[in-house]
């Protein structure tokens, strides 16, 4: 996993993770941003009782964002103690940070943001102006090395490793201030990494089945007929979304406004049709079915992931306010 100058979870990652929506009553699906290689496996996530886990609810995206904000705040405090500057990233509002999955049925959100292209552009601009990276680059070579060591333990820190459900090995650095922040929030950074890496990479094991599922495909066809009646003949939500991205990267302000207006029209029709045919509820129900088939093998990781998320949320609520 490449070293970064900001916590690994970003709003962009959160917005692009969901295939259909929340994995109902089973797991919170979040990309880890870690790399998959080809190495040997290590220990699995700690076991947990199914009955206890049944009483643990999944996090909302706002709660997940609050944990991410708390992690950044803790890292900032820690880096300051080591004599370095570190700026927390709150580029997006809570509304802008909302995940946009395969199914988007919030008509009002679509009317304001389309499919989120302007939000993604806003994030891209923020990344290009990353103050932490600029600050690190301004330091001397020895101070850069000290900065890296303070942030994540530096190059000598042992990597955390775990086997990905679909094969290969996921690795991550978790030393320095990053490791301290995770320890404060989750209790055991290594246990959290194993559970999170497993749960966040279950999707390849079932997404193909979900997209081929008869009930879900039937709902998508009904959605498609609704879209055709609205003047937008697309076979599925992904095709509708991709159609709004077929434009030149270099646009005048007027051209960009026209492109966004078209994106908004399609996104509003998409959300309206998705709501009319209950596409989200069908997708979530069928997604839960396929994830449920994996519970026998990955139930311990799912349970541990949810417990540790709740532990982190309780800590985060004492560290940072909710984003507005």
From TrEMBL:
Residue numbers spanned by region Disordered: 231-257
Biased amino acid composition, Basic and acidic residues: 243-256
Protein name (Swiss-Prot/TrEMBL): Lipoprotein
